[in-house]
From TrEMBL:
Protein name as catalogued: Vacuolar protein sorting-associated protein 41 homolog
SUPFAM superfamilies reported for this sequence: WD40 repeat-like
Keyword Membrane annotated: yes
Pfam families per record: Beta-prop_Vps41 (PF23411), TPR_Vps41 (PF23556)
Record-level Gene Ontology MF annotations: zinc ion binding
Stored InterPro entries: Beta-prop_Vps41 (IPR057780), Clathrin_H-chain/VPS_repeat (IPR000547), TPR-like_helical_dom_sf (IPR011990), Vps41 (IPR016902), Vps41/Vps8 (IPR045111), WD40/YVTN_repeat-like_dom_sf (IPR015943), WD40_repeat_dom_sf (IPR036322)
Cross-referenced PROSITE patterns: CHCR
GO cellular component, one term: lysosomal membrane
Organism: Taeniopygia guttata
Family: Belongs to the VPS41 family.
CHCR-type repeats, residues: 504-648
Bilayer topology: Peripheral membrane protein
UniProtKB keywords: Autophagy, Cytoplasm, Cytoplasmic vesicle, Endosome, Golgi apparatus, Lysosome, Membrane, Metal-binding, Protein transport, Transport, Zinc, Zinc-finger
GO biological process: cellular response to starvation; endosomal vesicle fusion; macroautophagy; protein targeting to vacuole
Length: 725
């Protein structure tokens, strides 16, 4: 039999050739010969057929045209192969195989001219023509001929010469235009035709063959075909009968193998039941395939078996049989438009049951989300099933909360289960589940009953506060939160505008909430409370709320000016430019003076003290702190026409600046209050300075003399000298 993508061509022992559609229905019949048909060959178009028979007859004819060629040989012709492009006029060629390999070409006068391509190595039993390459097998091995150069490019000898080539014929198959698969006996070779490099040519053909895979099989090869990067092998099997202990023919096998460089990996194996397999020989089986549809045809004397790749339903059946439910579910989801036998939901339910039986309750519950979807009846059924096996906790995390929503009784049942055995788990569910899933009053009463047994349980108290909040009983919730000193009190206060209830408790709130950012954010709309909180926080720790020091400048200026200057002095994170801008806008002189001096602008600060405050003592004190000669000069110039200022300067300048600088600049006739006392004080300060200098000088001379004597004594001491130096 030969396979084309459009039809099948089947030859019989009675010399008939039938054309069949892919379902096996006969569409045409040809009486070719009164004896056995040995070979049928089709070109790629499926329009021309070559047939040879046991009586030596060879026919090549068009299935849809009157074109025909007949030739009679004096011996049986086992093989015929037409050119793949026979339909084209310049490729009217075919080859026959008997004792010779003959090429027939049609000449320009429509005559067929034969030429011998090969002879002398026994009968030719198989030919496969692909593109410009012809492969054939004789008694010695397999040859490949390049039709372009008319050169043989390889000879692959057969491995087991003990096997009769007529009983164990060679199987040939082109995987593509350059890859030939050879199966002979129990040996398989995959050969690749390659171009020879120009530097290696010499007198050699321009192509050569490399065996890329080679391995032996367990049984004898009757046919083979490619399947992607794998091989389909039809094997002839012999086995020892258990009853008679005699070797007999077994059912043929169809194997899928993955070729490896020197071995193969079996992917699948099927034993085929065909009629009369007990009497069949290796040569009685053939394997043909349709490249486009991945259909494989196993031909035996009485049956033709069609094999095809398993569809997804077959694959899912196999996965379920192997209990690979996860893979089966994935396969069904991917192929949900093509599967006909299986339903995703049925597979999913079987998967859940399988996990429950294995004790993997959490995984089973997690899969419910995906498998049950929005089916409330199935959800409730599964919940009761988990309750029966004592695993309500496992499914609680995965129960739907929106679209769909189950009956309230389902959620209440789960909550009661946790309340009896796991307070923390119960609290988690109350936080995560919307309050409208269950009857809030029933759950509140249940919690209150448990608190009677354990009234100080923080987890139950906190949960009860959350339940009261959902029930809009905010007073009770706030009372519990304050008792627990829980941080959620801020959320409750802000959400329900309960600021008036906690105005006198702001310090208390600080004690149990360390989340400064959150507190500040919650009090954003209440700046006076926000100031109180940040002020208390600053008093407690100058660095804790440093990111809010800029905000505090405005808050102090607005609500608490007396503490603004201490804040500016103590804060190391306050932006000075921003503070100066605010103080200048509000005409805060003392704060502005401090900021100007801290920013290095001492002259402007001094000027503001003199002009705005009119306070000479502060100006002098400021000049002393800065200890800057130019600053004293500015102070003198500003004070020279103001007698009260001059008096203040005369009383305080003596130890910092030469008083003569000030006295020389006083105008004659100016009345200066308490001038005599000021001058006396200057002289007293001067005498004190002289005494201090003389005392220091005496101490310095005494220390120098003492050190000089010590040095002299040291230099007068003897020194040990080593004689060897």
């Amino acid at each position: 039999m030969t396979v084309h993508e459009k039809f099948l061509a089947l030859g019989t022992h009675y010399g008939k050739v039938y054309l069949l559609d892919v379902q096996g229905n006969i569409t045409q019949k040809f009486d070719v010969s009164p004896v056995k048909i040995n070979q049928i060959s089709l070109d790629e178009s499926g329009e021309h057929m070559g047939v040879c028979s046991e009586d030596g007859k060879v026919q090549v004819f068009g299935l849809y045209s009157a074109e025909e060629f007949h030739e009679m040989f004096d011996c049986p012709i086992k093989i015929v192969a037409v050119h793949p492009q026979f339909v084209r006029s310049h490729f009217k060629q075919f080859v026959t195989g008997g004792k010779k390999l003959l090429l027939y070409e049609r000449s320009w006068m429509n005559r067929w001219k034969p030429s011998v391509l090969h002879e002398g190595e026994g009968n030719i039993r198989n030919i496969k023509w692909r593109g410009h390459l012809i492969a054939w097998a004789n008694n010695m091995g397999v040859k490949i001929l390049d039709m372009i150069s008319k050169q043989r490019i390889t000879n692959v000898p057969r491995d087991d010469i003990s096997l009769r080539p007529d009983m164990y014929p060679c199987s040939l198959c082109w995987k593509d235009n350059l890859t030939l698969i050879i199966g002979w006996g129990n040996s398989v070779k995959i050969c690749s035709v390659k171009e020879r490099h120009a530097s290696e040519m010499r007198d050699l053909p321009n192509r050569y063959v490399e065996i890329v895979f080679q391995f032996d099989t367990e049984f004898y090869v009757s046919g083979l075909a490619p399947l992607c990067d794998q091989l389909v092998i039809l094997s002839y099997v012999k086995e020892i009968s258990e009853k008679t202990e005699v070797e007999c023919c077994a059912r043929p096998r169809l194997d899928i193998v993955q070729p490896l460089p020197e071995s193969c990996e079996e992917i699948s194996s099927d034993a085929l039941t065909v009629r009369g397999f007990q009497e069949n020989e290796c040569r009685d089986y053939h394997l043909e395939y349709s490249e486009g549809e991945s259909l494989f045809y196993i031909i035996s004397p009485r049956d033709v078996v069609v094999a095809k790749e398993r569809d997804q339903d077959d694959h899912i059946d196999w996965l379920l049989e192997k209990k690979k439910y996860e893979e089966a579910l994935m396969a069904a989801e991917i192929s949900q438009k093509t599967i006909k036998k299986h339903k995703i939901l049925d597979i999913g339910l079987a998967y859940i049951n399988h996990l429950v039986e294995k004790g993997e309750y959490d995984l089973a519950a997690r899969k419910c989300q995906k498998i049950l979807g929005k089916n409330t009846e199935l959800w409730e059924f599964e919940v009761y099933k988990f309750k029966e096996i004592g695993q309500l906790k496992a499914i609680s995390r995965y129960l739907p909360r929106r679209d769909p929503v189950l009956k309230p009784l389902i959620y209440e049942m789960v909550l009661h289960e946790f309340l009896e055995s796991d307070y923390e788990g119960f609290a988690t569910l109350i936080k995560e589940w919307p309050g409208d899933l269950y009857n809030n009053t029933i759950i509140v009463q249940a919690v209150v009953d448990h608190l009677k047994k354990d009234p100080q349980n923080r987890t139950l108290l906190q949960t009860l506060a959350e339940l009261y909040t959902y029930d809009q009983r905010y007073g009770r919730a706030l009372e519990i939160y304050l008792t627990l000193r829980h941080k959620d009190v801020f959320q409750l206060i802000h959400k329900h505008n309960l600021f008036s209830s906690i105005r006198d408790k702001i310090v208390l709130l600080m004690d149990f909430d360390s989340e400064i950012d959150r507190v500040v954010e919650e009090l954003e709309n209440r700046p006076e409370l926000q100031h109180v909180y940040l002020h208390k926080l600053f008093k407690r720790d100058h660095h804790k709320g440093q990111r809010y020091h800029e905000k505090q400048i405005s808050l102090y200026a607005e609500y608490d000016r007396p503490n603004l200057l201490p804040f500016l002095r103590d804060s190391t994170h306050c932006p000075l430019e921003k503070a100066l801008e605010i103080c200048q806008q509000r005409n805060f002189v003392e704060e502005t003076v401090y900021l100007l001096s801290r920013m290095g602008n001492s002259r402007s600060a001094l000027k503001m003290i003199m002009e705005e405050l009119q306070d000479v003592d502060k100006a002098i004190e400021f000049a002393k702190e800065q200890d800057d000669g130019e600053l004293w000069e500015d102070l003198i110039l500003y004070s020279i026409d103001k007698p009260p200022f001059i008096t203040g300067l005369l009383n305080n300048i003596g130890t910092h600046v030469d008083p003569i600088l000030l006295i020389h600049r006083i105008k004659e006739g100016m009345e200066i209050p308490n001038l005599r006392d000021s001058l006396v004080k200057i002289l007293q300060d001067y005498n004190l300075q002289i005494l201090l200098r003389e005392g220091c000088k005496k101490i310095l001379v005494a220390d120098s003399l003492s050190l000089l004597k010590k040095m002299h004594r040291t230099q007068m001491k003897g020194v040990l000298v080593d004689e060897y130096l």
